[in-house]
Design goal:
Elements: E1 3-8, H1 16-31, E2 35-40, H2 46-57, H3 63-87, E3 92-95, E4 102-104, E5 113-116, H4 119-126, E6 130-134, E7 137-140, E8 145-147, H5 153-163, E9 168-173, E10 194-196, H6 197-205, H7 213-222, E11 226-230, E12 238-241, H8 243-249, H9 252-256, E13 264-268, E14 271-280, H10 285-295, E15 303-305, E16 312-320, H11 324-338, E17 342-346, E18 349-355, H12 365-375, E19 382-386, E20 389-395, H13 399-409
Parallel strand pairs: 1-2, 1-9, 2-6, 3-6, 4-7, 9-11, 10-12
Antiparallel strand pairs: 4-5, 7-8, 11-12, 13-18, 14-16, 14-17, 15-16, 18-20, 19-20
Helix pairs in contact: 1-3, 2-3, 5-7, 6-7, 10-11
The protein binds adenosine-5'-diphosphate, aspartic acid and magnesium ion (MG).
Length: 426
């Protein structure tokens, strides 16, 4: 008996049949004596379709209006899930993010949650109801409707789980758990039984879509156990937990086994590379370039500055493709002011990362990665590292080759192709 938060992603509520299956599973969870909070994403590709609609009517998307538009997707799902629950005799009530008191900052389209009030959620549970909440949205301190960035329903679910002190936050999706690599690209990927918040943070930060980065940050900060699993097979999935819980759970036999050095090969194709050529190599140049980007809420990821020749250098960095237009506008202006020779950009790039806690104690991972890529004929354009991650930027056309070769070279192949049904993307 406890509180379970269940988040259902877009493919899990893509059509009426899926929505009915979700309702059945909520009923099943309740029949085991749990209170259930459901968080839903928009049906199938609804969010993409709404963005495409916006593009068709206008080239400028005022953030406030875009958020008004995008939040409608999740509202459709929440109402339909409640109706499907009513149909099988379960008392359920839907809430928007604003109604359950998800208070965010004022940055439209990528707002951060500041506070979760959750009063109405607790009242609904106390009244014996299932609460169904629209994911991906909140209300800002300026009382405007905001969205939490793509994939943000994961964050809603974890934030609500923390607010109601849930026993678990279950993330239902279209794969059976977190894998050593995206099973859509590396069919030999293996399902991970459990991994700790730090590794999952690095994987999400490196671009693994299976969990939104902010949701993992929230889970780590509030110690919310996550269970990533499939709404198609309903089998047990992957647990994301804090290290001490993992150590306590692991059998002595497992402890005796060497942990793998690498737990995942991750790709990110949502970033573009921008290069500023022929800029003076002197104090203040980087600040002049990156301060206005930060002020415009552009997330700069990797940065590389070449060694200077005759006091002149090049600076390359990556930004989300969604922010590229805004970034280029700023960078072109600053480059002009700094007397740079020019600015170029490349959208056909991919970032490939190796993530693994074992890297801390095993030198040579980066060197081996570079050798493997070189032997596969993959050119490396940029490199960055953290204590448990090595990332490289390569040409987008090399994504699959680089991931599969690295997965095999680091001994991660499961020996069998991913077998659970991968639903068609709608
Ligand atoms: P949802 O709509 O349920 O939120 P997402 O598309 O956001 O689903 O996330 C699930 C997808 O994440 C999977 O279909 C898979 O292609 C992708 N993915 C990327 N990396 C991984 C990984 N390491 N393990 C599992 N899935 C991954
Ligand atoms: N519907 C939103 C998206 O597609 C949020 C989510 O699904 O998590 O990004
Ligand atoms: Mg998602």
């Amino acid at each position: 008996m406890g509180i379970v938060v269940q988040k259902y992603g877009g493919t899990s509520v893509a059509d009426p049949e899926r929505i009915k299956a979700v309702a059945e599973h909520v009923a099943f969870t309740r029949s085991h004596g749990n209170d259930v909070v459901v968080v839903v994403s928009a049906m199938g590709k609804t969010t993409d379709n709404l963005i495409s609609l916006a593009n068709q009517v206008s080239s400028t998307h005022p953030g406030r209006e875009l958020d008004m538009l995008l939040t409608t997707g999740e509202r459709i799902s929440m109402a339909l899930v409640c109706m499907a629950l009513a149909d099988i005799g379960i008392d359920a009530v839907s809430f928007t993010g604003s109604q359950v008191g998800i208070i965010t900052d004022t940055v439209h389209t990528k707002a951060k949650i500041l506070e979760v009030k959750g009063d109405r959620l607790r009242e609904a549970l106390a009244a014996g109801k299932v609460a169904v909440v629209a994911g991906f949205q909140g209300v800002s301190t300026d009382r405007e409707i905001t969205t939490l960035g793509r994939g943000g329903s994961d964050t809603t679910a974890v934030a609500l789980a923390a607010a109601v002190n849930a026993d678990v936050c279950e993330i239902y999706t279209d794969v059976t758990g977190v894998f050593s690599s995206d099973p859509r690209i590396v069919p030999q990927a293996r399902k991970l039984q459990r991994l700790d918040f730090e590794e999952m943070l690095e994987m999400a930060g490196a671009g693994s879509k299976v969990l939104a980065l902010r949701s993992v940050e929230f889970a780590r900060n509030h110690n919310v156990p996550l269970h990533v699993r499939s709404s198609f097979t309903w089998e047990h999935g992957t647990w994301v937990l804090d290290m001490s819980t993992i150590n306590a759970q692991q059998s002595s036999k497992e402890n005796a086994m060497e942990d793998p050095i690498i737990s995942g090969v991750v790709h990110e194709t949502g970033e573009a590379k921008v290069t500023v050529f022929g800029v003076a190599d002197k104090p203040g140049i980087s600040a002049a370039l990156f301060e206005p980007l930060a002020d415009a809420n552009v997330n700069v990821d990797m940065i590389v500055q070449n060694t200077s020749k005759d006091g002149i250098t090049d600076i390359s960095f990556t930004v989300p493709k969604a922010d590229l237009a805004a970034a280029l506008k700023i960078v072109n202006t600053v480059a002009g002011e700094l007397g740079a020779a020019g600015v170029t950009h490349d959208e056909a790039v991919a970032k490939i990362s190796l993530v693994g806690a074992g890297m801390k104690t095993s030198p040579g991972v980066a060197a081996k990665m570079f050798r493997v890529l070189a032997d596969a004929g993959v050119n490396i354009e940029m490199i960055s590292t953290s204590t448990i991650r090595v990332s490289v930027v390569v040409g987008a056309a090399n994504t699959e080759k680089a991931m599969r070769t690295l997965h095999t070279a680091f001994g991660l192949d499961s020996g069998q192709a991913y077998s659970a049904p991968l639903p068609e993307r709608k």
